[in-house]
């Protein structure tokens, strides 16, 4: 086994929570509102069905092939050579997706806070920290997550200070344009919830593997609840204008003003953004390196961590020439790309596995 460290189901759930929401809080309300309008609050609830399918499929594969990740499972299901091809493609896709994540992180930080800081410095410093953490092993990642995920969740409570400024009538009319726009608005959050697939790289290292399904579902429910909460708060505050805002949650934090004391709280959002993306980038980097080393049956993944970190930086620079291209990818590409790899692929593998056992 490449990774000998052990983590609890609780620690896995804490890692999965920011893995989905670290970038989702800032951009998903706008993307969903562009299609669903004032019904964007439904999109998180609908996307939970994809999360349920993803968690159940990944856990079922683990039950059939215990102590193995998706890369090792494919060798039993479709054979050695196809599994190696699939493993390499998965590794490339995950590191490319990590480049997209770090680009979102960098664009937000340099575009709203560190205006004069070179983008490459912001990107490289985060990738360096995550490489050091991933190289330290799964247990180090889990311990960092126990500290950082509560810090990621806590600032959301400050949105409750906006209660006097919220207009609940902004939710009306419900389904005024029908259900189809809600389905269209659900495409992107539905895709991002598919990232729960990455729990396949943690299940073999759980101290109690039988609790994998339970903690996966708990993480899913917390993700959907948090997503719906943020969507409702921003909708009640900004109304139909939410679809015209790039970062509606940032506007909400800047709007907070209580007794001339609680003001200018966007620094909390920045802190939340940094620690949440730290966990998310760590998880994706770990999955990419692990896929690569398991595919090639290498004895250790640590020597390749910094190489994959450099690839992450390169993908963040080359794959997305500007902010407009990033927005187009998030709106029109990821809703199809992520579920194809993270949900449909393991589902097909599970079906093939069941057919072969008949």
Structural description of this entry:
- The protein starts with 8 loop residues before the first helix and ends with a helix.
- Strand 1 and strand 2 form a beta hairpin.
- The radius of gyration is 20 Å and the shape is globular.
- The chain has one domain: Amino acid/polyamine transporter I.
- Helix 4 (about 70-80) runs antiparallel to helix 5 (about 80-110).
- Strands 1-2 form a two-stranded antiparallel sheet.
- The protein is built from 13 helices and 2 strands; from the N terminus they run ααααααααααββααα.
- The model has no long low-confidence stretch (mean pLDDT about 90).
- It is mainly alpha-helical and about 350 residues long.
In short:
It contains 13 helices and two strands; from the N terminus they run H-H-H-H-H-H-H-H-H-H-E-E-H-H-H. It is an all-alpha fold and 358 residues long. The two termini are 30 Å apart.
CATH topology (fold) name: Amino acid/polyamine transporter I
The percentage of residues in β strands lies in: under 5%
Class from helix and strand fractions = mainly alpha
Mean pLDDT: 88
Rounded to the nearest angstrom, the distance between the terminal CA atoms is 30 Å
Write down the domain tally: 1
CA-based gyration radius? 20 Å
Note the topology:
Blueprint: H1 9-21, H2 24-36, H3 41-64, H4 70-78, H5 80-112, H6 119-135, H7 138-153, H8 180-193, H9 212-238, H10 248-255, E1 257-258, E2 262-263, H11 266-295, H12 305-318, H13 323-357
Antiparallel strand pairs: 1-2
Helix pairs in contact: 1-7, 1-9, 1-11, 2-8, 2-9, 3-8, 3-9, 3-13, 4-5, 4-13, 5-6, 5-11, 5-12, 6-11, 6-12, 7-11, 8-13, 11-12
